[in-house]
Amino acid sequence: MSLRIYFCGSIRGGRQDVEIYSRILGQLKRFGRVLTEHVGRPELNEKGEGKVEADDKCIHDRDLEWLREADVMVAEVTQPSLGVGYEIGRAVAMNKKILCLFRTPSKYVLSAMIRGAANGTNIHVKDYSEEKVETILQQYFEQQL
Question: Measuring CA to CA, which residue among 41, 64, 61 is closest to residue 51?
Answer without folding.
Answer: 41
